[in-house]
DNA sequence: TTTGTAAAGTTAAACGTTTAACTTTACAAT
DNA sequence: ATTGTAAAGTTAAACGTTTAACTTTACAAA
């Protein structure tokens, strides 16, 4: 069907090895170059990556493991990962584990059985044991796992929360609610800690009833915000710690006619497109999603080329986009 | 490094062929079965798909081409595609083309060069020529391309719009706005046609100024809804034709204090999670996303196993979820 | 015991590349 | 004309499987 090196060889009268060398960039007589180019074009020859992979023991394929394909934060990063890898000749096999612990392990081993040259993962419940003794490089995103030789790209979640809450404090707020994620998720714990740190640093007493734990989806953002709205002592500001919950939260506030920022100040997370759509535009913590993706891909490629590079942990900065959703507390 | 059939063979004293046969399900002496199982376990043998692929000329990999990795509709479908394919032993290479015509072609040929056994695509600007004469099966989602031997899974977009608009008409509405997608996109054209059909069928004069074309993103949903709100003759109902624009539209209405359904009736599209979060819950057209994904994957697998199956076009039904966002027009 | 035959196992070639080791060619220097 | 040598090209083995064709084994039937 598809033409092989052999076909090109017989068409040109040269040997297979010569064609292979030319295709792989070695020098060759000008005259033969032309002959080969012509033959390649005529036969529509394309290198067979499977055969190449067998010989070289490289599949030129990277596995990617994410919590959910509907998770916009993850897919945005993956989009950049895919681009970056493709520019280096790699394909990307994406698996999602639907936020399921068993599936997470299962899909990881699926990838490992597929001769991928490396893996980029956004893990939730993977542990040291799952990743120990692996023969290929792995880059972790969003979560660091101790005792394992995986590079890692994350943001300073604690600092992100700190800066959001500090900003609210500087605007005069004392009663600040946080809608954080699940207690057993690394990013959620860090984001809660940053919130607490800021209060402590500014000597504001911690009110446990202002700390809410959602599960990072729109519905829980909506529900918890409803709870906040109905509190006897309603906080003067809400800080919501992910993309989906930010949407749910704004919907709830809108529906109840709670005005941002006159009735309540608001800082959201991640969803920059959404933040630009609402009036007033939302103040928001944004993660450098493009940079996360590109960095992770590059770390992986480097590690593949030189497996001896030592473990690197890259902590990127988030930024706080200040818009009109935060008012000065009288 | 990784153990091969050869290693298992020498460990058991059997020939490579015997191991291969056993691994592929042929019968074998009980005694040898046990020996082989033990050796496989001890050596942690895993079949090498690259070598297997070289021999069988199958990569057991499917390419997937979608407009954008951030497109929730597409990724939801892909999530089901991935599952279904994985259950049949296939990996999924996902490429997104960022809504870019050139990239769309580029990524398609990237996939074609990768020995994928088949492709599932959600095309935007691919034409007959791009798909003609391909040697592997292709399944198209959401758009049919004439004159090309590709199976196709889509929903009845015209009928979807028709039923939404008919429902509004039956509730007494005459002035119905539609926020449709880009004029050059197949689904948008169909959805607009269904809107028009319904008006025609019920002898309601068509008001061109009620037909809006966004570009399927949140911002355009927001902007066009603002335009609608500010019309001198404001319609009594809005029908929004995709996921992202539905969010933008609701945000705009909420912000302007336009009450759903008392001030305006509303029917959205696709975003069932979002529709459940708002109060009142939104009436919404939902596409059978799971079914689309599973169907596309199954069509592809069937076509791979039997390339002679004739072209099939599967048109699935959408459904209209009726919730409190539509009121009776006095 | 011999024969027939089904089941189990083996041999070796093949898939499309790469690459080490080798040969041939081309041509400058003598 | 001879030699030396760098460049260009070739040969053949290898990567880890599968599989057609073959051999061996086991055992029931005669």
Describe this structure in words.
The structure is a homodimer of 330-residue chains. In chain A, helix 1 (5-12) packs across helix 3 and helix 10 (218-229) packs across helix 11. Chain A folds into 3 domains: 5-47, no CATH class; 58-155 and 289-316, Rossmann fold, CATH 3.40.50; 157-287, Response regulator (Rossmann fold, 3-Layer(aba) Sandwich). A 6-stranded parallel sheet of chain A has the order 2-1-3-4-5-11, with helices on both faces. In chain A, strands 7-6-8-9-10-12 form a 6-stranded mixed sheet, sandwiched between helices. Chain A has 330 residues and is of the alpha/beta class. Chain A is elongated. Chain A starts with a helix and ends in a 9-residue tail after the last strand. Chain A has helices at 5-12, 16-23, 30-43, 49-56, 72-87, 101-112, 128-131, 157-170, 186-201, 218-229, 243-255, 272-277, 289-305, and strands spanning 61-66, 91-96, 118-121, 138-141, 151-155, 176-180, 211-213, 237-240, 265-269, 283-286, 313-316, 319-321. The longest helix of chain A is centred in the last third of the chain and has 17 residues, at 289-305. At the A-B interface, helix 4, helix 5, strand 2, helix 10 and helix 11 of A face helix 4, helix 5, strand 2, helix 10 and helix 11 of B. Chain B binds a DNA duplex (30 and 30 nucleotides) through residues 4-6, 14-18, 20-21, 24, 26-29, 32, 47-57.
Strand order of the largest sheet of chain A: 2-1-3-4-5-11
Q: Find the count of extended strands of chain A (DSSP E, 2+ residues).
A: 12
Order of helices and strands of chain A: HHHHEHEHEHEEHEHEHEHEHEHEE
Largest interface: A-B, 52 and 52 residues
Oligomer: homodimer
Structural class of chain A: alpha/beta
The CATH architecture term of the largest domain in chain A is: 3-Layer(aba) Sandwich
| SS element count, helices of chain A | 13
């Amino acid at each position: 069907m598809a033409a092989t090196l052999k076909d090109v060889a017989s068409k040109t009268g040269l040997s297979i090895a010569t064609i292979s060398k030319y295709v792989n960039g070695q020098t060759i007589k000008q005259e033969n170059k032309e002959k080969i180019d012509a033959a390649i074009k005529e036969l529509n020859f394309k290198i067979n990556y499977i055969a190449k992979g067998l010989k070289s023991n490289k599949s030129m394929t990277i596995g990617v493991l994410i919590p959910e394909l509907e998770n916009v934060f993850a897919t945005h990063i993956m989009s950049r990962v895919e681009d970056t890898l493709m520019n280096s000749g790699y394909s990307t096999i994406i698996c999602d584990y639907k936020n399921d612990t068993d599936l997470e392990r299962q899909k990881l081993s699926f990838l490992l059985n597929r001769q991928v040259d490396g893996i980029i993962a956004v893990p939730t419940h993977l542990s040291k044991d799952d990743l120990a003794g692996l023969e290929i490089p792995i880059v972790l995103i969003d979560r660091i796992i101790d005792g394992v030789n995986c590079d890692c790209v994350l943001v300073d979640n604690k600092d992100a929360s700190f800066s959001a809450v500090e900003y609210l404090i500087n605007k005069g707020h004392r009663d600040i609610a946080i809608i954080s994620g699940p207690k057993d998720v690394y990013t959620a714990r860090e984001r809660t800690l940053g919130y607490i740190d800021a209060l402590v640093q500014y000597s504001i007493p911690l009110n446990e009833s202002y700390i809410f734990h959602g599960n990072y989806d729109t519905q829980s953002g909506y529900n918890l915000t409803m709870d906040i709205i109905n509190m006897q002592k309603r906080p003067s500001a809400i800080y919501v710690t992910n993309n989906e919950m930010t949407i749910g939260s704004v919907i709830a506030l809108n529906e109840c006619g709670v005005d941002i920022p006159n009735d309540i100040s608001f800082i959201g997370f991640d969803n920059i497109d959404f933040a630009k759509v609402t009036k007033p535009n939302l103040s928001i913590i944004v993660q450098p999603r493009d940079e996360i993706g590109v960095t992770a891909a590059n770390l992986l490629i480097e590690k593949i080329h030189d497996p001896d590079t030592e473990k690197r942990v890259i902590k990127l900065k988030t930024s706080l986009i200040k818009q009109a959703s935060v008012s000065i507390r009288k």
